[in-house]
Design goal:
Blueprint: H1 7-12, H2 14-29, E1 31-32, H3 42-48, E2 59-60, E3 63-64, H4 72-87, E4 91-93, H5 99-110, E5 116-120, H6 136-139, E6 142-146, H7 157-167, E7 171-174, H8 185-195, E8 198-202, H9 207-211, E9 224-228, E10 239-243, H10 245-259, H11 265-278, H12 281-303, E11 307-308, E12 317-321, H13 329-338, E13 341-342, E14 344-346, E15 360-364, H14 366-371, H15 378-390, H16 395-409
This protein binds pyridoxal-5'-phosphate.
Pyridoxal-5'-phosphate binds near residues 36, 99, 129, 176 and 204.
Length: about 425
């Protein structure tokens, strides 16, 4: 049963309540390896579902365009203060609706149409909002991309420096959405300083690891840091931008009135809750366990002949090139889903296949670590992945694996669902 229980919804709209219950059950029964997903706490769920959704508050605390901000102002101030304190940043904006609008705000703050910026190629692990040709950031601006080495699978800082010197970008983005290795913030800062660019670290995936001390922090190196709040940071769907004093006003203006209207106050409150949770000692343990689980899973997959991009992982994320397993990413992901293992098909660097049916799959350990799985369970997870991929057309085997997964997970409670009578 969903936690907190959906008693009012069940009475008012049983169809929808039934669907939400089914989703909660699905999240309970599956090994969720989508690298951008997690399980938030019941406290975060309660804040997200609160009456704060009723309130409009365009502007910032102390300077709003609507009355009645006696309570919303301190809520937003609390979220901002917790963000500044957790990451050690001078300024925080907690209003971006999600990670993509947060990045748009960066573009709006520092670039004019046609201006050049430097970022990681989408197919090498970058994000759509880092200048993909199908994104407004690729259509209206002039992105130049660095990539990873064919052999190393890692960002090549010599290439970054050469491109920066040749192209003189106004903004340099580091970070991305499928990077299994540590981002070298000091090296990026050195390049940005040399060419006079604003350095932006997009830590959407690794924010929880940074907060928990399991990945180096970009604070002190990046001028601007964007992040979602719902991936490893384990908060509600939303985003934040952290900046130095120097860039605070430009970013605030770009979010409002540049891009957005009223902030989602229920989300702001839930972000504040998640930031408090992330400041606790046990969140450090959680962040370390995410990485330990990813390393153990990477080792177990490698032992089974899987070809990991960059040869392993430093963080929560594993990218696998399935070419040597004679299956593409999409049919593999679909078979795994039927076997109770949820992940996404993904492009790998230098992928000869198309993005809609690429060669790889992407996995992450943030959600299963929240469930309480540890290193000792990773051999079983790797074996299940291996068996399901080998039996991609064999429904009976996939069903059997899904049953074994359900059995394992029955011993690991899920925040947001409880097996009540
Ligand atoms: C997830 C992600 C985003 C976008 O977040 P949304 O909330 O999905 O808009 C931006 N940048 C990176 C690197 C991401 O991984």
């Amino acid at each position: 049963m969903h936690q907190p229980p959906l008693s009012h919804l069940s009475a008012a709209d049983p169809d929808l309540a039934g669907l939400i219950e089914a989703e909660a059950r699905r999240q309970h029964d599956k090994v969720r390896l989508i690298a951008s997903e997690n399980y938030v706490s019941p406290a975060v769920l309660e804040a997200t579902g609160s009456v704060l959704t009723n309130k409009y508050s365009e502007g910032y605390p102390g300077k709003r365009y609507y009355e009645g901000q006696q309570v919303v102002d301190p809520i937003e101030e609390l979220a901002k203060a917790r963000a500044r304190e957790l990451f050690g940043a001078a300024h925080a904006n907690v209003q971006p609706y999600s990670g993509s609008p947060a990045n748009l705000a960066v573009h709006l703050a520092f670039l004019n149409p046609g201006d050049t910026f430097l970022s990681l190629e989408l197919a090498h692990g970058g994000h759509l909002t880092h200048g993909s040709p199908v994104s407004i950031t690729g259509k209206w601006l002039r992105p130049v991309h660095y990539g990873v080495g064919r052999e190393t699978g890692r960002v090549d800082m010599d290439q970054v420096r050469d491109l920066a010197r040749a192209e003189r970008p106004k903004v340099i983005f580091c970070g991305g959405t499928a990077i299994p290795r540590t981002i070298d913030f000091p090296a990026f800062a050195e390049v940005a300083r040399e060419v006079g660019a604003v350095l932006v670290a997009d830590i959407a995936h690794i924010a929880g690891l940074v907060a928990g001390g399991a990945h180096p922090s970009p604070v002190g190196y990046a001028d601007v840091i964007t992040t979602t709040t719902h991936k490893t940071l384990r908060g509600p769907r939303g985003a934040m931008i952290l900046t130095t004093e120097e860039h605070a006003t430009a970013i605030d203006k770009a979010i409002f009135p540049g891009l957005q209207g009223g902030p989602h106050n229920h989300t702001t409150a839930a972000i504040a809750v998640a930031l408090k949770e992330a400041a606790q000692e046990d969140f450090k343990t959680y962040a370390r366990q995410i990485v330990a689980n990813a390393r153990a899973l990477a080792a177990a997959l490698t032992a089974r002949g899987f070809d990991l991009v960059s040869g392993g992982t430093d963080n929560h994320l594993i990218l696998i090139d399935l070419t040597n397993k004679d299956i593409a990413g999409k049919p593999a992901a679909k078979a795994l889903d039927r076997a109770g293992i949820e992940l996404n098909f993904n492009t790998v660097p230098f992928d000869p296949r198309k993005p809609w049916s690429p060669s790889g799959i992407r996995l992450g350990t943030a959600a299963i670590t929240t469930r309480g799985l540890t290193e000792e369970h990773m051999a079983f997870v790797a074996a299940s992945i291996d068996q399901a991929i080998a039996a991609a057309d064999d429904e009976a085997t996939l069903d059997k694996i899904a049953g074994e997964i359900r059995e394992l997970l029955a011993g690991f409670p899920m925040p947001g669902w409880a097996a009540t009578p």
